[in-house]
UniProtKB/TrEMBL annotation:
Annotated InterPro entries: ATPase_dyneun-rel_AAA, P-loop_NTPase
Name of the protein: Protein containing AAA domain
Domain of life: Bacteria
All residue ranges annotated as the ATPase dynein-related AAA domain in the record: 303-399
GO molecular function: ATP binding; ATP hydrolysis activity
Gene3D superfamilies registered for this protein in UniProt: P-loop containing nucleotide triphosphate hydrolases
This protein's UniProt keywords: Coiled coil
Ranges in a coiled coil: 174-236
UniProt keyword Coiled coil present: yes
Amino acid sequence: MANNITENTNDQVKRWLKGGYWLGRVNYLHENGWGFLTAYDDDKILVSPNNIEMTKVWFSWKEMSTDIVENDWVIFEPDDAPIEEKEKRNNPYHMQASKGSVQLVKEISEFRKVLPDISSPLFNNLRDDYLDCILIFGQRIFIASAYADDVKKQLDNHFKQLFEQWKSEELSKLEQREIELADRQHNLEEYKKRSEFEIEKQRIELDEATKKAVWVKDQLRDLEETRATIRLYEEQVNTSLKRWGFDTISVMEPSAEQAHANFDSEPSLIDFVEKFIRSKGYYFTHDQIANFYTCLKTDTVTILAGLSGTGKSSLIREFSQAIGAEFILVPVKATWSDDSDLLGFYHPEKKTYVSTVFLDAIISANANPERLYFICLDEMNLSRVEYYFSDFLSILEQGKNRKITPYSKTEWNIRKAQLGRFKSDLDNEKISQAEYDEAERNVRCFKYEIDVPHNIFICGTVNVDETTHPFSDKVLDRAQIIQYGNVEFADYKQSAENVIPTFVSYSKFREFSRKTSEIPVNDNWFNEINSILRIGGYHFGFRVKQQIEDYCSYGLRSGLFTSKNPDDVVDLQIIQKILPKIRGINSQKLQETFFPEFRKFCGDRYPKSNEIIDILKNMDSINFWQVFRHVG
């Protein structure tokens, strides 16, 4: 028996990968020539790295040249079990005996009883060498107890010598290590003394910079509120002037206002955005921009997925800049674990609400109802989206009455009452004016209820690699997934024209949000595709149905896409709303029934969906997000 039987857990993992003989005991024999073994590590049942006992290792006994019965001891070479067995046992480390490797070794149990419990690599080598001899010179060598006692004495003496040698060497190493640690501690203490003054100096400078940043932020917020008020007033006045036949007024830049007036249709808006993006050195096709724009109209979360460097966040940023909207980038961190990472939290000791960039953007959008806001959750699947985004997804479905509740109304009333004490402290010069202003602003901005206005668009980017997390059905049902494959540099041609951004108000944007009643999908269409999905254990509900209908209605109303074939719009929705749900092990049932039925349904009407279906069909483990590595 090889010397890797008594290795620790990490070594076991290597052994499973590289091979080696295990010790096993027969626990079941089937008349058809197969059975189960229990794998042992010394006198204990072998446990896999994920703490599952290896009690059902499959083996074939019909090929063995010797008779075998239950409870016989054997040695065998482990082999990776089929994936079906791993799933059945719920154990990725599940093994089976390699074909033809099982050998009967009855006497090995008697030999093991007389061996001492010694944790020594050299002892293990001696012991395993002896076990190897059993395998080489015969499977039924009887070991006399007298000889076993002699071997035990020799091993005990050898172990004592090895232990004393090891003890002496380790003590010497320990003494040297203590000297090194003492020197290091002395150096660290000296460094600490030298650094304390610099740290305190930097802390004071940081405090001053923080106070200044808060003041600047408040000034910018006030300025933005003033600008939004002026824009709203301008639109109201111009409406009245037009009604009476007078010329309109403008407090914006003339070029931007003139461009605003030219937007008499959605196609003209898409053409302008495409022109603006090219002037900034980026290239996206007309249909890619139209697809992104149509997804925004469905009031769902728009997720741009693909390989790193394909311009996902660039599209969101440049689109928002083209129409004079606010773009807020929120980098998602792998450590995000709940909604406080997204929406902030109330600090009970400091009696203040600790906000986030995401929540600040929502508050700013409330103060500027005619300005569009694009909030981009960058690399949103670095953490599990359900952990930090689930509650906010539910809020987005509340219709017009969408509200965030950071804390209770009672707690907010207590905070308002505390402002009176802060005012007294200010009068008595116990706190500064800046401290009071910050406390007052915090109470005023972060109320017990914060509206989530409809002039915000929640977008996200997803990188497709092994470091990210998959999406649950809750997220997929509430999102439009836009895929980006490889960048085609041959199609890229930068425009030399300088295109000035154009302000598009929320009212103007919603003015375009009209639907058409004629769409190429109906209840029979949804029932047919859902029945096919059920073959593979998938399905979708009314929420997905409504989103597909809305997308087709918006996309077909004004002819936004270059193709005039309505089925091409439906093709996009199959890719963005239905195919992301297909995932899991590629079983025989999927190969023989599901994929053929899906391809038959798509036929020539939905060629892009069929292309992705062919890619998914050839995957051992179906993963929609890996499709982006195969398509352009």
